[in-house]
Design goal:
84 residues
Amino acid sequence: MPIRYMITADGGFLCGDTETGLAAFAYPTSPHAEQAKRCPDTIARHMIAAEPTVAHGRYATPGIEERDRRWIAQLLQTGKECTT
């Protein structure tokens, strides 16, 4: 699974699966963002694995799919790929 991630300028953590288009964001003060500073690959995999259970209800919200597309594009440009 081609998962990419990045730490944002404000200290948040953005990750996404470039194959499925699912993306997830952790705010700078969240535990996931803090943990991602130490082990980003692990946190990215964990967040994306949990995303399908969250995404079903989330996509009922207007604009979410477009936001995920923007995030995936950003990850493709400046994100790092998870190592195996």
